Amino acid sequence: MEDERSFLDICGGPLTLRRRYYSSYCREFGLSSARLSLRSVTAVTCTVWLVAYGLFTLFENSMILSSAIFITILGLLGYLHFVKIDQETLLIIDSLGIQMTSSYASGKESTTFIEMDKVKDVIVNEAIYMKVIYYLCILLKDPVKPHEISQVVPVFQSTKPRLDCLIEVYRSCQEILARQKATSASP
Amino acid sequence: MVLKAFFPTCCASADSGLLVGRWVPEQNSAVVLAVVHFPFIPIQVKELLAQVQKVSQVHVAVLGTWCHRQQEPKESLGHFLEGLGAIFSHDPWLQLCRERGTRFWSCKAYHQVSTTPDKSIEDQVMLIFYDQRKVLLSWLHPPTVLPDCQAGDTTASAGGLADIFDTVARSEVLFQNNQFDEGPVRLSHWQSEGVEASILVELTKQASGPVCLLLASLLSLLSAVSACRLWKLWPLSFIRRKLSTCEQLQHRLKHLSLIFSTQKAQSPTQLMKKANMLVSVLIDVALGLLLLSWLHNNNRIGQLANALVPVADVSGFGLCHISASTCQVCLSPGAGVGSFQLPELWEYGERVAEELQHLLQWLMGAPAGLKMNRALDQVLGRFFLYHIHLWISYIHLMSPFIEHILWHVGLSACLGMTVALSILSDIIALLTFHIYCFYVYGARLYCLKIYGLSSLWRLFRGKKWNVLRQRVDSCSYDLDQLFIGTLLFTILVFLLPTTALYYLVFTLLRLLVVTVQGMIHLLVDLINSLPLYSLGLRLCRPYRLAAGVKFRVLEQEAGRPLRLLMQINPLPYNRVVHTYRLPSCGCHPKHSWGSLCRKLFFGELIYPWRQREDKQD
């Protein structure tokens, strides 16, 4: 079962939440943000090249122009490969774990998987950053002291959705976690 | 909890048969290791499993049945398979089936709660496919090591996935049977096409035994020689401590003896350490040979020798130079023959001395418009100039012999690039020895002056430093003590700018030299400690170094069990470097910036790159 809805992120940009219910114990949430716009790429490239051309007329050294071209290309590649995140996915599977994937604009994917034994809870926490913002995070258990929290792992860090989107995700996650707690409590 | 069945991808197209593997009750998961095909005799299957269990300490059992309907046209097989549940009793009993006509699988798990088998819902079984070969070969790196967690706890608390990896890795003996064996039982797993091996690897393994033995004995001989008591005598031990080349050679010797030791590596970490050291040594030697060929090929030494211009005549020292050059002519008739003439390094030494002379002339005048105390200025300037004159004469005297020494030293580059860099650092230290001497003179003078000034300043205020109590106490002075104290204080204060300027100039020069040496040592450290083998492994075989796993949901139909693909998540590069860094004689700066500034202000001698101590990571 799959559905898509549009939301807004903290800064007002458009986001798309795609939910997939594979089964009663496996769900996936994908948040995609806006892609890289041609306008901003052109603006940055033109600025850099104008500056380089200005320096070239000053110094009469053609190395400046070739280095400007190199810098632009490398900067764009680096931005696409290391900075620009297109989509963030949260896959939650009962009794297995929670997996978070970030896909970059160049196609690179970086994945983190947390086993269900380590997950204590999934909560929506608030933070104060010029205004109040909300973020979803996973609380991890301390293996030595099971009642304490050892780590807080925030989810959707670069897409930063607003509270309405987070509530949807939070409700679904809590259903699965409740199920998991019920089945693990009864042997 | 949902029942998880880990199924190897290599068995997805195997014929029907029995599922053999391990049941992990804590995670409610079944790890399938192999499929036993028809025909088989149950007794022999049980014997094989008992054998495997004894060798590998893994509780291997028959977990259920596997039915590949696309290859079995007979429908009666289903009933036959159900009957097998009675022979090999296991709770829960799995029945995996790959349907004909659809790409989807069906999976049932039977729990024998009562006399009649209790059917559980299909939905509650999850199929997870894994690549057996990759899981077998990979080493799992736990994300964080808690400080208060003992080594024995990590396997228990590391969770289900470490268990799965562990199970597959320890069942290696099960994968030794392949289809070409004439055994009673026919198995299907990742190695059923035949055990993977390569001739080169086998030959190297056979040859490595005697080679290691030979090299280990040679290296132990070398270590014994280097540890003998002769080196502890005063001049040799002093030289040994001061030269970084000796330390680098010792470091490399230690590495080599570890690589060629006859003991087998006990754990994967030790194996990686050995491999990293070996690759590091090989790359080092390769770089050194490249450097050597570059130096000799383009007649670089000859070119550098041609750049040698006879020493520019400095007025006042002409006599010394003429005498020195006649010495040179007498002692080295063959100096012009061949390309092994005086290297440029020597010429640099003379140029450095000339630059220093110009600097001192400048200081003796009115440097930067400051007015110095003429008498003290002349004294200090003349003293340092005479020192330089001695140094230049020394260079001239040594020049005939030094070319051969340097050529032979240049050959040491074939021991490795790190050794060549260490020798370069030592040569820089030797050539700038006079800068070091000047720094020490200037620093001592300045230090004395500062201490005198502070003590006399206390005298002004009627106080005294109490050495016993390590504090400042009041004290009453006599009139003549006060009078002399005031005189001395005035003299010292007015001479302070001159001394301070000389101190500043020579300290800056010394810091420059120290920075250059520090850079070279950092580079040597980098070559020594970078784990190149691990980085190469991460690049070419990323599944070997695993940080964790990742799951992908495969195409799914409602009502069918969920199918996931488990893949290995490789370790990121920065963690690879951090985990597998080789211990090095790290030249960490001893002082923080604050203490360095304090020492500079008070004129205490600084040695920022103290690398003699054993700083093991």
UniProtKB/TrEMBL annotation, chain B:
GO process annotations (BP): GPI anchor biosynthetic process
Parts of the chain that traverse the membrane: 275-295, 379-397, 409-432, 481-505, 511-535
Keyword annotations: Membrane, Transmembrane, Transmembrane helix
Coiled coil: none
Record InterPro entries: PigQ/GPI1 (IPR007720)
Annotated Pfam families: Gpi1 (PF05024)
UniProt key word Transmembrane: yes
Gene Ontology molecular function, alphabetical: phosphatidylinositol N-acetylglucosaminyltransferase activity
Recorded GO CC terms: glycosylphosphatidylinositol-N-acetylglucosaminyltransferase (GPI-GnT) complex
Name this protein carries in UniProt: Phosphatidylinositol glycan anchor biosynthesis, class Q
Protein source organism: Nannospalax galili
Gene (UniProt): Pigq
